[in-house]
């Protein structure tokens, strides 16, 4: 099994994925920021992992150099301008404090994957830039894309109304024959600190999804399965009650064991939007 980890940061998910795929698999971990990359490399070495290939660069819309926006938190750097959508009263916690920028080597997704085997899983947490990468996935030649599953953290606060994300998902779920298989909720039971946020269980229930659709429940998040595609896409594009999404080829089965591994891989690490 081959996995591409975009926005690997200090390696939390890289290490988890490397253990999941085992010695016969391979994880390609991509991280552009020097401080993060140094920690990634050290963590991989400390865990004695030999099935991880690390590269200090970024995946973008084209080969060359690109300016990366740096923020106060090391896991919030992005090519996407951290500007909150004006059409909703987003919490102040979503605002990014920009502290600078840096030039980084960038490769297009197609260019990066050209000399690598087809990926079974693409995992990414890239602070709003995932819309561009999803479009890049749709543009890949079929042999590079047809077995790829995609796990990404959502950032609807940056989607500018959600139309770009909606278009990318509709292409993937239409022309590319993929499906949104799982959604990971945020604020499943509401928030004591943020009273205005409607609990995710109510948001999902209003669309007809109850406990029978939950395959795993955490302290403040749940993993939902068997959603109608139009509902899943709309929630990804517009709801702060969604934390992550998992897409799979429509013809691919998702056995219970594999689904359980995916659920473990998306369990929150104590950082981010929750």
Which percent range fits the helix content? 25-40%
Instruction: Tell me how many strands there are.
Output: 12
Q: Unreliable segments (pLDDT under 50, ≥5 consecutive)?
A: 268-274
On the 0-100 scale, what is the average pLDDT? 88
How would you sum up the global shape? globular
What multimeric state do the chains show?
Answer: single chain
Q: Major sheet, described briefly?
A: 9 strands, mixed
Q: What's the number of domains?
A: 1
Keywords:
nine-stranded mixed β-sheet; three-stranded mixed β-sheet; 29% helix; 25% strand; 274 residues; single chain; alpha/beta; disordered C terminus; 9 helices
Question: How would you describe this protein?
Answer:
The chain has about 270 residues and is of the alpha/beta class. Helix content is about 30%, strand content about 25%. Helix 6 (about 165-175) runs antiparallel to helix 8 (about 230-240). It is globular.
In short:
This protein has 274 residues and is α/β, with parallel strands linked by helices.
Furnish the topology, listing elements before pairings.
Elements: E1 2-6, H1 12-21, E2 26-30, H2 34-46, E3 52-55, E4 58-60, E5 64-71, E6 98-108, H3 109-113, E7 121-124, H4 130-139, H5 142-145, E8 149-153, H6 163-173, E9 178-185, H7 200-206, E10 214-217, E11 222-225, H8 229-238, E12 242-249, H9 256-265
């Amino acid at each position: 099994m081959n996995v591409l980890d975009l926005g690997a940061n200090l390696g939390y998910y890289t290490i988890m994925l490397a253990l999941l795929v085992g010695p016969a698999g391979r994880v390609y971990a991509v991280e552009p920021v020097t401080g993060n990359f140094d920690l990634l490399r050290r963590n991989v070495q400390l865990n004695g992992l030999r099935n991880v290939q690390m590269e200090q660069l970024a995946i973008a819309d084209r080969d060359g150099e690109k300016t990366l926006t740096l923020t106060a938190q090391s896991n919030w750097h992005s090519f996407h301008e951290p500007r909150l959508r004006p059409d909703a009263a987003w919490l102040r916690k979503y605002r990014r404090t920009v502290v600078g920028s840096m030039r980084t080597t960038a490769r297009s997704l197609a260019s990066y994957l050209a000399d690598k085997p087809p990926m079974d899983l693409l995992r990414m947490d890239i602070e709003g830039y995932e819309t561009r990468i999803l479009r890049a996935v749709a543009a890949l030649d079929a042999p590079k894309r047809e077995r790829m599953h995609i796990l990404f953290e959502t950032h609807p606060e940056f989607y500018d109304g959600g139309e770009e994300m909606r278009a990318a998902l509709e292409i993937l779920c239409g022309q590319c024959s993929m499906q949104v298989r799982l959604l990971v909720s945020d604020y499943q039971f509401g928030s004591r600190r943020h009273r205005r946020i409607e609990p995710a269980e109510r948001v999902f229930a209003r669309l007809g999804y109850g406990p029978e659709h939950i395959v795993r429940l955490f302290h403040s998040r749940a993993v939902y399965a068997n959603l109608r595609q139009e509902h899943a896409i709309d929630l990804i594009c517009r709801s702060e009650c969604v934390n992550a999404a998992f897409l799979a080829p429509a013809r691919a089965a998702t056995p219970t064991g594999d689904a359980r591994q995916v659920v473990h891989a998306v369990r929150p690490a104590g950082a981010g939007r929750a």
